[in-house]
Write a structure and sequence with these properties.
NAD, single chain, hydroxymethylglutaryl-CoA reductase (NADPH) activity, four-stranded antiparallel beta sheet, alpha+beta, binds nicotinamide-adenine-dinucleotide, Alpha-Beta Plaits, EC 1.1.1.88, globular, hydroxymethylglutaryl-CoA reductase (NADH) activity, 3-hydroxy-3-methylglutaryl coenzyme A reductase, 423 residues, 3 domains
């Protein structure tokens, strides 16, 4: 069934109504969404995932609407504790939709495992001998994972460098592995450990670290979109977003915040689908510093028609098999709502959401300022922090927004007067 992500007014519905609409829009059984009750994870299930479990902590799961990627609609589950993230992504996706939504492509799911070799007396000769053993090493690596090779993945290439360090000269070998629908850490670590003795023997060296690199720059995914000038607020807003983008490209202080806005979208989908947020964050931030200076991950430009074009390219090591993606019932439900069938497709949606999130933040900053929309949505969290019950939250939040005072202290005052009936 073709998904329709254009559900208007989702924010004004009850949770039960939203579940029904999302299930209907995504073409999944509404009963599947009950897996999201109470965080979707029992303490017993959690006990099988990590050590010394004493409980679980729940994070709100929302669904972003309006996303179109490569001509297909997606309803996107996002796990985040931060107000306004889901609304902002949905708004930006609505603006991009007018000009065809997001277009995404990538390098393919290739991860790198590093093998560190120490003590070679002739490091350059050692490097050459390692590379001569290329086929033997690739075959040995592939023998570790018949499932992966059967699926068309496996070790593809071997590269090596001589690295000068403060602890002497080292030979660093990279094993490049197509991990298909896996995030791939366990898969490539197993291969790295298996091939290390052969590499050490050829190099006349000792192997030390054997582990993947989170600088996953052979697993890049890029997204682009055209954002309509009129819907953004006019030509001045377009020019101002270009200026804001240039600021982030030139200044690491601004770039960190600019990229944090991108990660608001990326990490929320990564978490919702049970993927490794730290691996993705390490990959993205190392990519932002790839030329030796930390910079913005995205670019915004004005096109010939005066609209805004946005582009974002980042490493995106996410999977659909392994890790918590299979073990966490809520992650499984999130993946069903998304309806993706490969890790590459998931990665393309995630990077598109990152670009949508980034555009929304830049637009708000360049137009009315970030607090205008954010604080309105944040008012409910402030009301709850002040002790408002779920029934009281809406009334208190509305009053805070109306009075332009979105502060916990004031929320307590409002709550007190509400409870004493003298509003
Ligand atoms: P995994 O080992 O559980 O699953 C991968 C395996 O699944 C493959 O080796 C293959 O044998 C099999 N498989 C079945 N169907 C497949 C398909 N369609 N495509 C690919 N493989 C298929 O998991 P993984 O993805 O290798 O490792 C991910 C986990 O490793 C995450 O939980 C991550 O947090 C953790 N981890 C991360 C790091 C790091 O980022 N530095 C280090 C160690 C572990």
């Amino acid at each position: 069934m073709a998904v329709n992500s254009r559900i208007s007014g989702l924010k004004d519905r009850s949770v039960a109504e939203r579940r029904a609409l999302v299930a209907d829009g995504a073409g999944v059984d509404a009963a599947a969404l009950t897996a999201l009750d109470a965080g979707g994870l029992t303490v017993e299930q959690a006990d099988h995932m990590i050590e010394n479990v004493v409980g679980t902590i729940a994070i709100p799961l929302g669904v972003a609407t309006n996303m179109t990627v490569n001509g297909r609609d997606y309803l996107v589950p996002m796990a985040t504790e931060e107000a306004s993230v889901v609304a902002a992504a949905s708004n930006a996706a609505r603006i991009a939709r007018v000009h065809g939504g997001f277009h995404a492509s990538g390098t393919g799911p290739v991860m790198i495992a590093q093998i560190q070799l120490l003590g070679a007396v002739d490091p350059h000769g050692a490097r050459a001998r390692v590379l001569e053993a290329r086929q033997e090493v690739l075959d040995l690596a592939n023998a570790q994972d018949p499932v992966l090779t059967r699926l068309g993945g496996g070790a593809r290439e071997l590269t090596a460098r001589v690295l000068e360090t403060r602890d002497g000269t080292q030979v660093i070998v990279h094993l490049h592995v197509d991990v298909r629908d896996a995030m791939g850490a366990n898969a490539v670590n197993t291969m790295a450990e298996a091939v290390a003795p052969v590499l050490a023997e050829r190099a006349g060296a000792r192997s030390l670290l054997r582990i993947l690199s989170n600088k996953a720059d052979t697993r890049l995914v890029r997204a682009r979109a055209v954002f309509d000038a009129e819907l953004l607020g006019g030509p001045r807003v377009v020019d101002d977003i270009v200026s804001a983008s240039a600021f982030a490209e030139a200044d690491p202080y601004r770039a960190a915040t600019h990229n944090k806005g991108i990660m608001n979208g990326i990490s929320a989908v990564v978490l919702a689908t049970g993927n490794d947020t730290r691996a993705v964050e390490a990959g993205c931030h190392s990519h932002a510093a790839r030329d030796g200076r930390y910079t913005a991950l995205s670019r915004f430009e004005k096109d010939r028609d005066g609209n805004l074009t946005g582009t974002l390219e980042v490493p995106m090591p996410v999977g659909l098999v392994g890790g918590a993606t299979r073990a966490h019932p809520a992650a499984q439900t999130a993946i069903r709502i998304l309806g993706v069938t490969s890790a590459t497709e998931l990665a393309e949606v995630i990077v598109s959401v990152g670009l949508a999130q980034n555009l929304a933040a830049c637009r708000a900053l360049a137009a009315e300022g970030i607090q205008h929309g954010h604080m309105r949505l944040h008012a409910r969290t402030v009301a709850a922090s002040a002790g408002a019950s779920p029934e009281e939250v809406r009334d208190v939040a509305e009053r805070l927004v109306k009075d332009g005072r979105i502060q916990v202290e004031y929320a307590r005052e409002v709550l007190e007067s509400l409870r004493s009936g003298d509003r």
